[in-house]
Amino acid sequence: MKRLLILLATAVASFANIVLSAEWHGTKSVWHGADRYDFTIAGRSAIMIVPDNPLPGNPWIWRPAFFDAFPSIDTAMLEQGYHIAYYNVTDEWARPSSLRAGKEFFDYAVEHGLMDKVVMEGLSRGGYYSLCFAQTYPKHIGALLLDNPLVDIHELRRNIDWWNDVTAKWSQDSLPPPGSAENAACNISILVDNKIPVLLLSGGADTIVPYERNGKIIKDTYQRWDMPLKSVVRPHSGHHPHGIDNPYPVAEFIYNCLYGQHNLRPIRVACIGDSMTEGVGTDDFSTQSYPAQLQTLPGREYVVGNFGVSCATMLRNGTDAGRPFGYIIHPAMRNVIDFNPDIVIIALGVNDCKSYNWENFNSEFTADYQSLIDTLSMLPALPEIYLVIEPYVQETPQTLSWGFENKGYSTNKCVKESILPLLTTI
Questions:
Q1: What is the DSSP letter of 313?
Q2: N or C: which end of the chain has fewer CB within 10 A?
Q3: 266 preceded by a cis bond (ω within 30 of 0)
């Protein structure tokens, strides 16, 4: 009996250590309905937000910069049971003393019962610190959540004030400003070698931290080695705003990384379109359609789904011979959602140019296209989405009989002069 009681006491103590946080010290307040504690470590300000119902193991998100800026992801993660932490190294440009201080903060958090693998959430220059901390202490990283991150510190040379600050901060450690050996952009392989998952949010129109010279370095390296990375590039977004409209797919990605459900499943490609996607005109859709041909290309492991629907329109109110054919209301759309693709290729628009569609509903085209994109972009896989300009229609008696009448304009002219300019605004 005594042995049984000891075992039960040990189990209870272990469970308490896994599920419940230790007591936190500091100034207590409230942040988004949860307890907030403010304190200092190594002379730097720290914050810990404690969820009402922590997940097993007490997972946590650590922002090294810009606490409470664009907090939608943090509030969603808090709601899901994650601790939200902040340790202020915002303007230290990952100099060695700041990395050592970060390790002291990490150790403090783990000693207080938090998971021994942290999710680093780096916005802008906070992304640079997150990368450098992960490259210095890779065994302590559960995942990286990077939002328009600075990756190549030499980008700061374009702004003399920023680079002077880098030089001043590093000189406090009696070191010259970072060269190639210390530059995060040159050490992405450390993350790859340690299989650290990355969720990368980028603004394609970012002029402050250009994606092509920063985030894309991570994406290209990870894809080269088939490592776990989810990349969402918002083509028309700049450096701000950070975050994402629907943060819950982010929470799902992070959960899968931390709790062992993250895996390198084949990349799923959903081909959305009309008859040209479905394969009308070929002898065998299953082997001769463009999605079928795409499936045969060598390279990484892909699963390509053909979700083409003959006569489909982008216009929600589009019809064919009086029958509704808007893609977003067609059953195929549900199949795409269930497929949960990583990549979506959208090729729609030709059937919208049929006179009875374009003349009645052309003013709705942009909004309907954006609605489809918004629906797809919030799927759990956070897919990359590519818009395709469809080929021109050869105007023959047969195509004219399908509704591509020439009433003062041709279908091809409609695609070129009406739809193409609209796509550049989406």
A1: B
A2: N
A3: no
Q: Tell me the pLDDT band of 22, cut-offs 50, 70 and 90.
A: low
Helix (H, G, I), strand (E, B) or coil at 21: coil
Residue 277 exposed, middle or buried by CB count within 10 Å (0-12, 13-18, 19+): buried
The CB-based long-range contact list for 210-215 (8 Å cut-off, 24+ gap) reads: 210/155, 211/148, 213/151, 213/152, 213/155, 214/148, 214/149, 214/150, 214/151, 214/152, 214/155, 214/185, 215/146, 215/148, 215/149, 215/151
The label of the residue with tokens 């937000």 reads 49
pLDDT band (50, 70, 90) for residue 412: low
Per-residue pLDDT reduced to its tens digit, 168-179:
999 999 999 999
CA angle 90, 55, 228 (to 5 degrees): 65
104 phi, psi to nearest 5 deg: -65, -40
> Who's near 202: CB < 8 A, 6+ residues apart?
148, 211, 215, 216, 231, 232, 233, 234
CA-nearest of 157, 32, 124 to 83 is 32
Element spanning 373, H or E: helix 365-377
Using an 8 Å Cβ cutoff, are 282 and 336 in contact?
no
pTM score, whole prediction: 0.76
Query: What value, to the nearest 5°, has the Cα angle with vertex 18 and ends 13 and 22?
Result: 80
Q: Say which DSSP state 311 is in.
A: T
pLDDT tens readout for residues 342-382: 899 999 998 998 888 988 999 999 999 999 998 998 888 88
